[in-house]
# Entry
Amino acid sequence: MTDAAADNTATTSNTSVDLAADRARLLELIKEQAVVHGRVTLSSGKEADYYVDLRRISLSGEAAPLVGRVMRELTKQLDFDAVGGLTLGADPVATSMLHAAAAAGDRLDAFVVRKQGKAHGLQQRIEGPSIKGRRVLVVEDTTTTGASPTDAVQAARDEGAEVVAVATIVDRATGAQQVIEDGLGVPYLSAFSLEDVGLA
# Structure
């Protein structure tokens, strides 16, 4: 084996170890900080015995960089150059991925989908660099019914973008995958399941 080949093998191995460590630490932080036990009413109107508050993770100085790297690894087989979703849950996820891409020497734009268009200024529903004619990834922090990413996908399509997939940090296993894959015709990816976070 040449020195260059050995260096490449070592780099690949180190990268794999780093990504495994990132994933393990992110999961640890989610379990410690994001899982809140107690009776809560979800956005769907249903009640649950726990709540997964991923904003405690996606807005954390320690966890946000991990989110960016783990989500980039999750979606590495996809071809897209912009990432975003429905405000508020998607915003820190998208910007974490933007910064992770920049740190790796890549370019990735982020965009924000408003819940409704502005009534003043440019009156646009989607903020950030234009996504018209571009391949985009829709993200969310945790997915329950799939309503938020569905809204974001439709808004992105209305803007002229091609949505390649929907990706979330934690899937609650409450029907979002079927809604997104069958209803929207795009792949659905999640970094962690309820089993992973110890809730199933």
In short: The beta strands are 35-41, 47-52, 82-86, 109-113, 126-127, 135-143, 162-171, 188-192.
